[in-house]
Design goal:
Helices cover 25% and strands 28% of the residues. It is an alpha+beta fold and 193 residues long.
Length: 193
């Protein structure tokens, strides 16, 4: 029999705000091996990351590495939409005081791109750097934030084993909620006689 203080950790993942029935089933499939069994917050806590993405390397375009993750503050430039009916990528030019590079996207809509990447605006971007000849590029950046939202990007981002249909961001939200419950349990246990 477990101590009553631990009971909140055995609540279903469906108690997490934003986790509905569909996501709860995906989490059950991942964490319990069967989507009919309810996944619990404790299951989320014991599902450990396999590695970490390090986003601490902040640089200018001139300082970009040959490969790896980089975080940059850039100004959004010109959009280059591909001709209709082609399989060419959509490109967004970005620049800083030291140079220019391209953000590359496949299967996207122009209106959405113009909203997310407004020309002339400063953005903080982070993602995998690659090179196309002499030109640096970042395909589908992991983070694109206004400068005042910079604190939303983790410097070290855990990567968990996943199942189809479940994103790392959803899982990170579930893990944060489970840790919050755990912290509540720790607070209560410190006050208990």
């Amino acid at each position: 029999m477990r101590p009553e203080i631990l009971t909140p950790l055995f609540a279903g993942v469906g108690t997490i705000k934003g986790i509905g029935e569909k996501l709860a089933k995906l989490l059950a499939k991942l964490l319990r091996g069967d989507e009919q069994e309810q996944a619990r917050l404790v299951d989320v806590l014991f599902h450990l990351p396999t590695h970490v993405i390090d986003r601490r390397y902040r640089c200018t375009i001139a300082q970009l590495p040959q490969s790896g993750i980089a975080t940059l503050e850039v100004v959004i430039g010109r959009h280059k939409a591909p001709p209709r009916g082609t399989r060419l990528p959509y490109k967004v030019e970005v620049h800083d005081d030291t140079g220019m590079m391209s953000l590359v996207f496949f299967s996207t809509h122009t209106e959405q791109m113009l909203r997310t990447y407004p020309e002339g605006q400063r953005r903080l971007i982070s993602g995998e750097i690659s090179w196309f000849g002499p030109e640096a590029q970042m395909s589908h950046p992991d983070f694109v934030l206004r400068l005042e939202e910079a604190d939303r990007m983790p410097e070290l981002e855990p990567v968990y084993p996943m199942t189809a249909g479940l994103s790392g961001k959803i899982y990170a939200k579930a893990a944060a909620a489970a840790l919050e419950k755990l912290s509540g349990v720790q607070q209560v246990s410190r006050r208990a006689p």
